[in-house]
């Protein structure tokens, strides 16, 4: 598979390919990976039964935001990590996406809150009924 990675993520991606559920790389040729009805990314998510998506990255008001909007429109559950996103545009551009995400596109939280919840879940014993 041909792919291009940002140098800081290349090692993480290679490690992720070795896990029980390996990382997957899909091409992006628009701001959004879900902009068309059928895409490698959308097809993979549907095939794997993935319904909830966490969003972080650069250019909140561009690629992150447009993918989040399209994911919401396709009935995915969307969660934006506000401190995991950034933009070099004017502050109101990122703030507008955070506002809309919190009000109508899904959920808005932080990396810290997610980590705290993950710690709670892994420390709590959950019993399934037989």
The biggest sheet, with number of strands, parallel, antiparallel or mixed sense and barrel status, is: 3 strands, parallel
Q: What percent strand?
A: 15-25%
Overall helicity: 40-55%
Q: CATH class, please?
A: Alpha Beta
GO molecular function: hydrolase activity
Protein name: Isochorismatase-like domain-containing protein
Family: Belongs to the isochorismatase family.
InterPro entries: Isochorismatase-like_dom (IPR000868), Isochorismatase-like_hydrls (IPR050272), Isochorismatase-like_sf (IPR036380)
Q: How would you describe what is shown here?
A:
With 130 residues, the protein is α/β, with parallel strands linked by helices. The protein has a single domain (35-126), classed as Rossmann fold. The chain is built from 5 helices and 3 strands. It has a 3-stranded parallel sheet.
List the helices and strands and how they pair.
Blueprint: H1 7-16, H2 40-48, E1 52-58, H3 60-73, E2 77-86, H4 91-105, E3 107-109, H5 111-123
Parallel strand pairs: 1-2, 2-3
Helix pairs in contact: 3-4
Protein name: Isochorismatase-like domain-containing protein
Family: Belongs to the isochorismatase family.
Keywords: Hydrolase
């Amino acid at each position: 598979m041909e792919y291009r990675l940002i140098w800081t993520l290349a090692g993480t991606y290679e490690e992720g390919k070795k896990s029980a559920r390996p990382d997957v790389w899909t091409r992006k040729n628009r701001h959004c990976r879900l902009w068309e009805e059928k895409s490698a990314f959308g097809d993979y998510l549907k095939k794997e039964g993935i319904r909830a998506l966490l969003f972080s990255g650069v250019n909140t008001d561009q690629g992150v935001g447009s993918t989040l909007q399209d994911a919401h429109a396709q009935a995915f559950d969307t969660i934006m990590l506000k401190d995991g996103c950034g933009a070099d545009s004017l502050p109101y551009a990122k703030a507008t996406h955070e506002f809309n995400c919190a009000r109508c596109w899904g959920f808005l939280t932080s990396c810290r809150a997610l980590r705290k919840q993950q710690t709670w879940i892994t420390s709590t014993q959950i019993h399934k009924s037989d």
